[in-house]
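Model: You mentioned two targets. I'll fold them one after the other.
Researcher: Yes, keep them separate.
Model: Target one:
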Amino acid sequence: MAVKRIQIIKIGRFSYTNENVIKHIIKDFPDYEFEIIDILRILKKKKLIIIVNIYYVLKEYLNEFLAGQKSIFKLKKYFYGTTYIFNKFNSIIKSHQRGKSYKFIFQFQGLCNAYLKGVPLFIYTDHTNLANLSYPHIKQADYLRTDKWLSLEKQSYHEATLIFTMSSNITQSLIIQYNIIPDNIKQVMAGINIPKNSFVAPKNYKNKNILFVGVDWKRKGGPLLIEVFKEVLNIIPDATLTIVGCKPDVRVKNCHIAGRIPLEQVQNYYNKATVFCLPTIREPFGLVFLEAMYNKLPVVTNNIGATSDFIRNGVTGFLLNNSKKEYTKTLIRLLNSPDLCKQMGEQGHRIVYRRYTWDNVGSLIAKNIKNKLQIKQNKFE
């Protein structure tokens, strides 16, 4: 009798990625029963595991804390980086798999290993831990896990039937840093969290408004942007800066801080903006860039991570090198050039509209899963 069950493993919301991908998998496999496990939701109910894992953070990273390589005041950053929590995630998954059969298992990210002998495992990820070595403007040791944790992460990727990636830099990380065979990786990109045919309001590129959207103020380059904006004001005194997603303690004229707001309200700020600027220094992917481009904004950011996949330097925006001078010069040029902003914004919109939708991503994922399942089936016929 054919197996008619599919297991999906997720860890929280993953920037709305989970909901969108799951919706498309369900649509493409309509005759199957789905078992969707949110490990984070289960973990939150197990207070003892959370408490014990704090002990393991201290234990497993003790030498690095003592050596000053990692900050003991940032324990939250290392919470998912212990072998204890990785194995607990695996235990939760195994408890649900016990005594069941699956057509395949689909896992988001590499923070656990849902592999079950004899069952194809597919992983969709935006990052790897060793990819942190590619960011020149961060303290890399802050993000790197222990060797034991890395061995668990590597095992999960090597046991996967196929790994779906969002970007070329992560594809290369898996090949070069994790020794994954290229044929076992498929770059499917990601989609914007905006309906494809959503109306984009006509823009007034003479507004001279710079928009920043991000939750992690420091990692997203907020402090640099403030210093740059002060320089911009010296040349363009009526320029404005809008900060959405966080509430940093900054006191600069012409700066409006909106803080965290519902996703649907962010659209109002895209409509009023002239330029989108996010000088991020570490970025697993950056869906917010795609959303800015969909809203016909030129994008200014650092040339790191996945940004070069979708931002064409000088065409849809500018890729810089975390330089105050470069950012100041670029923003002044754009704010003084409404026609250039319009041209770049429309180019970016076309790229996102054609390529970066969840319909495209979902179709690619489903097509490749079906191909792998067909190959497996043919082997046993």
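Model: Target two:
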Amino acid sequence: MFDVYKCRVCGETSLMNGKPGNCPFCGADREYIVKKENYNRLMPDSISETSRENIKSAIKLEINNSKFYSCASRKTGDEFESSTFKRLGKIEAEHAEALAELIDVEEEDIPKYDECYKDALKNYEESHKRESRAIEQYKVFADEAKEPEIQEFFNAIVEVEKDHLELSKRKLS
């Protein structure tokens, strides 16, 4: 029998035997995965204009990163590396969707993108730069947020992006 868990960051439901280690959709840490009866989404009642603008910027960043990873998945010749980039792209797209839900805007489609490399290591170098920028930006957005839920949301996403950064570090060493 499966247990029902929900992610407080992206709101997605997981059906599993036992609690997942991370959200299988957005990559949020285990602490954000709760049983349905304990679920309360990181969704503030109102959002300041500063947070709204920061969330819009974050959506663009996540869409651009998703486009990059989708391109890397298509162009990288190695099947394993291709599937890794594909998963990273899906996680970034999930972040964009969750951010869009915070401010109740229509999520954007992720257009095709061709600015990546055939060489997986070059793509990991670019990934490292992108994840580092995202982490720094999201730390600022968390600090600027007046809403505790938005602060927690951005801090949760920072942790996911740090996992991505760690992945690129391992691949590059």
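Researcher: Noted. Anything on target two?
Model: The chain has four helices and three strands.
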